[in-house]
Structure to design on (432 residues):
């Protein structure tokens, strides 16, 4: 009997379960699971492709542009090759070969390519564009007449004395390599000297570090003001009877139904010295007619307008969290002897942290990259980093600097995200 028992166990352990088709059940289950995974992948693939094309590729292109300097190398390849052989410690000006190759490439180069190169060269030192244009015209005239200079160096200096200025040639060192960090240095008010050492920009050109600090300060202030103003509104929405809370919710959502440009323009009308707010304060006798406040085209106007515009993004996450907090928690705390203020601080407020986290992060992310409102309401004093990105993108066409500013902005956001995850925990963010 014992032997029969052992024989039965051996049969069970060695026999495989088969499907009706004679395929092992384990293998059939793996095949079905693989088919489900493939089917799920193809269902999600359009969304993945959309995210890759509209999100990953633009960010990747921005990061590449922030260090890319290959275009100018294709315009003056021989000049840069000879330029690298120049011993700057020995000679103040490049040797004859550098002048010769530059002369030849300006004589044979395409006008469109040279024009694009001039824009890049002007970023390194102001004056390159006019220098190259004037020299190129003179070289074309000489070429048509069949004139060959005896000394290319003397000829170019005779055309324009700036070719004998060492600072122009030193600035060319920033353009020799196909990848360069110069745009990142420019984005934090640094540049290179003649020995390629990183130095501070001229005092008149130091604008970005101050703008970065102002952008961070305004974003933190706006987030704080939205939290202070949005918390009681969200609390009312969560605790008022349904008919009143629905009406209040309409007022919260009403700004989303109005154009952002219209709201920003309305704030300009209200905040200006002859505007509504100053007029009411003068009418109440709080201000004299000569003592009207300047609340627009400065940082104050930027803070007021951005706080009002971003306030709904704080209220809605707070409301969605407060709505599901049981009212019995506060009553239980008070029944156990806690005063209302203590019950609110120890029981209710900790439960709203997920909503404050979501709203705070959402408002801060939107504020740090805001452009339209600071541009229109802030004026010269209220400009944030987004305004400079738009300026270089549309006016100076310095896409490398634009990309570097955008990459730094992305890096700052990732650092804040990492700190937030360490301190608060990203798992605590809830939208309801």
């Amino acid at each position: 009997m014992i032997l029969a028992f052992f024989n039965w166990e051996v049969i069970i352990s060695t026999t495989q379960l088969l499907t009706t088709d004679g395929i092992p059940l384990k293998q059939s289950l793996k095949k079905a699971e693989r088919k489900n995974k493939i089917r799920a992948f193809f269902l999600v693939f359009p969304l993945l492709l959309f995210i890759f094309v509209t999100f990953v590729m633009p960010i990747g292109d921005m990061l590449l542009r922030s260090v890319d300097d290959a275009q100018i190398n294709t315009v003056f390849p021989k000049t840069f090759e000879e330029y690298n052989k120049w011993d700057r410690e020995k000679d103040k000006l490049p040797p004859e070969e550098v002048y010769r190759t530059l002369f030849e490439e300006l004589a044979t180069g395409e006008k469109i390519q040279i024009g694009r190169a001039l824009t890049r060269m002007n970023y390194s030192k102001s004056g390159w564009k006019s220098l190259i244009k004037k020299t190129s015209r003179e070289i074309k005239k000489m070429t048509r007449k069949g004139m060959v200079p005896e000394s290319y160096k003397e000829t170019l200096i005779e055309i324009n004395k700036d070719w004998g200025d060492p600072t122009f040639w030193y600035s060319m060192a920033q353009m020799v390599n196909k990848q360069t960090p110069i745009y990142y240095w420019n984005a934090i008010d640094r540049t290179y000297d003649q020995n390629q050492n990183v130095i501070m920009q001229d005092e008149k050109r130091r604008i970005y570090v101050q703008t970065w600090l102002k952008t961070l300060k305004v974003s933190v202030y706006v987030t704080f003001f939205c939290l202070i103003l949005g918390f009681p509104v969200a609390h009312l929405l969560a605790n008022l009877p349904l008919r009143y809370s629905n009406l209040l919710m309409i007022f919260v959502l009403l700004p989303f139904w109005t154009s952002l440009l219209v709201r920003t323009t309305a704030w300009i009308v209200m905040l200006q010295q002859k505007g509504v707010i100053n007029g009411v304060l003068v009418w109440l006798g709080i201000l004299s007619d000569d003592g009207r406040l300047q609340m627009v085209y400065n940082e104050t106007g930027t803070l007021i307008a951005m706080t009002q515009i971003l306030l709904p993004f704080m209220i809605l996450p707070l409301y969605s969290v407060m709505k599901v907090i049981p009212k019995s928690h506060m009553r239980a705390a008070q029944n156990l002897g806690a005063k209302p203020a203590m019950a609110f601080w120890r029981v209710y407020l900790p439960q709203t942290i997920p909503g404050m986290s979501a709203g705070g992060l959402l408002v801060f992310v939107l504020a740090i990259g805001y452009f339209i409102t600071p541009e229109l309401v802030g004026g010269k004093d209220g400009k944030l980093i987004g305004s400079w990105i738009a300026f270089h993108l549309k006016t100076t066409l310095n896409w490398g600097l634009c990309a570097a500013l955008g990459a730094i902005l992305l890096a700052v956001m990732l650092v804040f995200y990492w700190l937030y995850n360490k301190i608060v925990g990203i798992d605590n963010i809830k939208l309801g």
